[in-house]
Amino acid sequence: MADQTAEQYYIDESGNTGDLSTVKIDSYFTEQRMFALAAFGCTLDQEFGDRWEANKTKHRIQAPEIKSKQAYDKPRFVLDLLDLLEAHDCPIFIEIVDKHFFVVVNIIERMIVPYVGECDTQPNAFWMKGVMANYMALYAPPELVHAFAECCQSRDHTAIRDLYKRIIFWAQGSRVPPTEVAEGIIRFARDSLKDFRKLPKVKAVERALPIPDKNPAGKLLWVLPNLTSFTNVYARINRFARKQVSEVTLFHDEQLQFGDILLHNKKLAEDLAQFGVRLSLKTADFEFSQAAKLQFLRSHDSIGIQVADVLAGFIARYVQDAVWGGTPMHPDKTAIFSRLVAAGDGSKGTGVNFVAPDNMIRFLGIEPRSNF
């Protein structure tokens, strides 16, 4: 898509179930397994608005605010929307996240291979942690993920120590190839458990669990894919804009519960380089030399937010249906998904970024690509 830098980006999400550490085992992502966050850059002029309204009329959409579920059931409308975005050279940025995999990644990065220094952000380290996360997401029993979630809520030193032991016990009994991955998990988990035992209890707990955020009511939130997705999209926009984001405004759908947290995490992303943390990713640039503005809009007041909602809602529902629906996908929906994937240019940060196991990505007809 476009090479020029837009000054306005509209962002919305789909499939947000909040803190993943609170999801109960009896309803474990049965309906909303996938989370998606979509952004696109565009100056919404009169011509864009007129074509948006014309497309709604063409597809008999009468509601003043179109919802993503409604658009998903009208794939021809979404195809026309993609034509509109392409005609206006709008860069698109999408994060699609398998929530189960996201929790597993947190286990790997906090308990198995915790961050100790710059070596943990090098390509080899990213590759190794990715291999472990793929293996654990596929073969580890769900009870380990639920135990991690319970540890986040309880912050109990003994429960965390026991979880280390349970992870090691599972990996020791795993006979699924490649068994050397299980052996690597055992080795790293044992080393991390030794470090855990040496630390004072409070420090040990802090190291083993994700860094929590706090909502306006003061409640701690532990595993939030919307925050990671937002900061990654921001870094992707930073790459697309060649670090020139001082004139950029990010318009995000109104977030009564997460607005302050998003602002805080935006600032943390901008300050990463100052703390010596360097993430060398192909599709995202976390070395910010300038800061964009972040504002919140209500969806019914903004065509841009509605467009982002349609994009996020479509891809979250499509992947959910394609992987777990059990029925063939409508050809128009497959065409939309393929078009979104093909339109991206990773070197510029645009397109679809999958936070999911490699086997799921391949099932969708896409060959996984390294991002480091």
Automatic annotation (TrEMBL):
Species, as recorded: Acetobacter sacchari
One Pfam entry name: DUF3800
InterPro entries xrefs: DUF3800 (IPR024524)
Domain of life: Bacteria
Protein name: DUF3800 domain-containing protein
